[in-house]
Specification:
This protein is 66% helix and 9% strand. It is mainly alpha-helical and 148 residues long. The protein has a domain at 1-61. Strand 1 (15-21) and strand 2 form a beta hairpin.
Length: 148
């Protein structure tokens, strides 16, 4: 938008002089505008240019090249955010799947504990021999853990 180009002067506003007679036998002379559209267009043109100039002077508008660069950065950032949202969605799904697996494992551990408690209650000697065999196996295994 060019602010240096002069705004065209409006055409003269055609008016007609009207004499009005009143009940008190007095007369008033008034100028009545015949066509106001040209003047309204002129006012709007000047007001629009003033508003645009005021916006630029306040720094609310950036020049074209800066606008394109910022616009490109915003588009890139928007794409990055969309990709991040997709990544987060897949991570969320993985967490839900892991949570399901953990709940299944927790149930299995609960079942195994009940089985071990039942064996310990009904066959304590078997469980004690099993625990002793486990301790002996740990003592005999080479450095580095079982299966070494």
């Amino acid at each position: 938008m060019e602010f240096n180009t002069p705004v065209p002067e409006p055409k003269p506003i055609p008016v007609e002089i009207v004499k009005e007679r009143h009940l008190l036998r007095t007369e008033t002379v008034k100028a009545r505008v015949i066509n106001i559209n040209d003047f309204v267009r002129y006012k709007k043109s000047v007001a629009g240019r003033l508003a645009a100039a005021d916006t630029v002077l306040n720094g609310d508008v950036v020049p074209g090249q800066e606008f394109r660069e910022v616009s490109q950065e915003l588009i890139s950032t928007k794409a990055d955010l969309a990709q991040t949202q997709i990544d987060l969605s897949s991570t969320h799904q993985e967490l839900l799947n892991t949570r399901g697996e953990l709940q299944k494992s927790k149930k299995e551990i609960g079942v195994l504990r009940r089985v071990i408690d039942w064996i310990h209650e009904h066959f304590p000697a078997v469980l004690e021999r099993f625990m002793a065999a486990q301790e002996d196996e740990v003592k005999v295994s080479p450095i580095g853990g079982p299966g070494g």
